[in-house]
Amino acid sequence: MFFGLFSIYPVLNALYLSFFQKHLLSTAAPRFIGFGNYQYLFQSPTFWNALTVTGIFTGGTFAMLVGLSLVLALFISSRKRFQRFLQLAFFSPAVVSTVVAAAIWLLIFDPRGIANQLVNTLAGTPGVDRRWLVAPGMLQLATMFVYVWKYVGYFTIIFIAGISSIPRSLVEAARVDGASVWQTFWKVTFPLLKPTTLLVSVVAMIQCLRTFSTQYLFSQAGSPRGPIDVITLNVYHTAVRTFQIGRASALSIILFAIMLFLSWLQFRVARSEEVSYL
Amino acid sequence: MKRAAWFLVMLLALGLVATAANPVKITFWTHEDPNRTPLEEEYIRRFQALYPHVTIERVTYPSARIAEVLLTAFAAGKGPDMFNLEVNDAYPYLVMGRVAPLRPEWVGYASVESIVGAYLGGTLDPVYKDGKLYGLPLELTIWSVFVNKKYFREVGLDPDTEYPRTWEQMMEVSEKLVIREGDIIKRRGFDFRYGYYVEWLLAMVEQLGGAFLSPDGQTAVIGDEAWLQVLRFMQRWGPFGKNLGSPTYTAARSLFNFDRNEVTMCLSGFYQIARIKSNNLAFYESGEWMVIPFPVFENAVNDVASHYYGHYYMVNAQSSLETQEWTWRFIAYMLSNPEEYLTRVGLIQPRKDLLASDVYAAQPYGDVFASDMARSSLVQLHVANPEFKQLLDEAVKAVMLQGVTPEAALATLRTRANEVLAEYK
Question: Is the ipTM of this complex over 0.90?
Answer without folding.
Answer: no
